[in-house]
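ok trying again, last paste got cut off:
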Amino acid sequence: MNTEKVTARRLSAEEVSELGLQDSIFVSAEMDGLPLDCYASAFLTKPGKNFEGGSFTARTIFGEEIHVLPDNAEERGIWIADKAGEEIEVLQSAGVLLNLALFVPDGNKESLDSLYSAARDAFGAGIVQRWSEETVAVPEVKVDLYEEPARGRKNTNSQNRDRRALDIYPTRVRFLEPSDGWRFIVEPHKEIVDDTPTI
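nice, full thing came through this time. structure:
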């Protein structure tokens, strides 16, 4: 297990409530119920002032969500780097796991195997591995994707919509996220016809 010693101090719930989303903190490195006797780098899931009841939620760089009561002496609490603090063991990253969604036109088993082989040749056979594979046929249909305010007024003119993307395949929609306060509207694709008279 690769760890490094970091000088940090434990924060009270009041101090945590002053933190924002950009502030780097350390929380328990526990993963899926696996107890690890060290800490992990993390960030709050929302600004500290937006939590209630002294319970905070942080997401570690490894994707784990940890619920913490900083003032509870029986818990590990939330720590922040501070040269005047004490040494804690922080779990280091071994690398980055990429979850890739690949679209292969007219894809078949041979083309997928070729992609896999090319990736292994580029990065090394021990690096590129298939963790899970979902093969989904993509229908030959296109959609228009709009983004509009989540609490928009009814019967508003469609021209007021903020057009986020055009002419995309429906399977790509599930990999996109709307902006804060906005929602997606998906409609069948309509070709833009320019009826401007020409001479």
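cool. Strands lie at 3-10, 25-28, 39-44, 56-60, 65-68, 79-81, 86-91, 143-149, 162-168, 182-188. The chain has a mean pLDDT of 82.
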